[in-house]
Amino acid sequence: MGAMHRLTAKAVSSLPPGKHADGGGLWIYKRENGAQWVLRFTIHGRRREMGLGSLSLVSLKEAREAASECRKVVHAGMDPIKERTRKRREDARNIHLLKDVAEDAFESRKAELKGDGKAGRWFTPLQLHILPKLGKIPVADLDQKDIRDTLAPIWHAKAETARKALNRLGIVMRHAAALGLEVDLQATEKAKALLGKSRHKAENIPAMPWKDVPAFYQSLSDGSVTHLALRLLILTGVRSSPLRHIHEDQIVGDVWTIPGEAMKGKRDVTPDFRVPLSTEALAVIEEARRHARGGFLFPSQRRGVISDMTMGMFMQRAKLVYRPHGFRSSLRDWIEEQTETPYEVAETVLGHVVGGAVERAYRRTDYLEQRRDVMQKWGKWVTKEGNAPGELK
């Protein structure tokens, strides 16, 4: 191998053009326009030269360290040039940016999300609050401090949004791990610990007192899509999304069947939900048919169905603090205070899951007949056709 370390850092910079040996196969090739470190070695009886970088970027010390590592590879019977190429390819495969992994995770979960995740805007918290700052960071480099710094501005001010963003990010990190990437699966939990307990107190959606519902119902009298949609929302106690997407094909007789994928919950396990329609609800549906487009009872002015903001904005313009979703609470309070409906039936009215998995496996009923009686009484109360509240028991 000959003498080692023949050159000095000071001498390297003043060497004339040509090839100069440092020993051990390390050379510096000097030209008029620059200099290049080169390692000469023999592998499998073949002489090879490997560039180690230019003198402007790699010092003599660094060149010697790189040469030493390469000699170890040669000693192990491998070609350091091929090993370097292999490692670069491997590193390139492992540079998965967070935005790419997040999009892949979303695509993988779409099948189990309501409306392919669009209706519930599963991706939105990531898109708005995570990816603008962290999207171009390799997912393997992401740590709790990055996450903490990103979510800190909204951790207390927009607590629920921040919670969703952190939850979605945790799912993305687990997806990255499933892809075989080296990620810190505890990063989101560590970030949560760094962020501390949120000072924000969750507030229930404002619900109109059930005693005030009849007067509001009567005010919805112009026969417009918005008025009719709100009327049916009140009468059925369903959530906004299935109400807005109600289709004529879903109604048979006095039963409206909401597809399982439109219900809240996991798309692949949520069963269809039957909603008994009161006499008043059937009347509202019949009136809404004149607005129907493509079978949808509540179409928007341009295309599709009315948005989830339509009914809410109407109530805001009416200077009401209550929100459409709150009518579910109005109905539930009315059932509790003015009827003797069993708990299981009352909860099923709202489409809530009652009991554990084993209990549900044996209890196959959806209490349709009992719910039909409850909803008929509710329809009479809302339209002021029934007896006094205390006589509805």
3D structure, described in words:
This protein has 393 residues and is an alpha+beta fold. The chain folds into three domains: 9-93, Double Stranded RNA Binding Domain, CATH 3.30.160.390; 98-195, Orthogonal Bundle (DNA polymerase, domain 1); 210-391, Orthogonal Bundle (hpI Integrase, Chain A). Helices cover 46% and strands 10% of the residues. It has helices spanning 9-12, 60-75, 80-94, 98-109, 124-129, 131-134, 144-155, 159-178, 187-195, 213-219, 225-236, 240-244, 279-288, 310-317, 327-338, 343-349, 357-362, 368-382; strands at residues 18-23, 26-31, 34-43, 46-54, 251-252, 255-258, 273-276. The strands form two sheets. The chain has a four-stranded antiparallel β-sheet, with helices on one face. A hairpin with a 2-residue loop joins β5 (251-252) and β6. α4 (98-109) crosses α8 (159-178), α8 (159-178) packs antiparallel against α9 (187-195) and α11 (225-236) packs antiparallel against α13 (279-288). The radius of gyration is 34 Å and the shape is rod-shaped. The N and C termini lie far apart (102 Å). The relative contact order is 0.07.
Main β-sheet, in a few words? 4 strands, antiparallel
Strand content: 5-15%
What's the total count of β strands?
Answer: 7
What count of structural domains? 3
Helix content: 40-55%
CATH homologous superfamily classification of the largest domain: Intergrase catalytic core
Distance between the termini: 102 Å
Order of the strands making up the biggest sheet = 1-2-3-4
CATH architecture of the largest domain: Orthogonal Bundle
Class of secondary structure makeup: alpha+beta
Count of discrete alpha- or pi-helical segments spanning 4 or more residues: 18
Estimate the global geometry from the Cα principal axes.
rod-shaped
Low-confidence stretches at least 5 residues in length (pLDDT < 50)?
A: 386-393
CATH fold node name of the largest domain: hpI Integrase, Chain A
Mean of residue pLDDT values: 87
One letter per element, helices H and strands E, the order comes to HEEEEHHHHHHHHHHHEEEHHHHHH
Query: In CATH, what is the class of the largest domain?
Result: Mainly Alpha
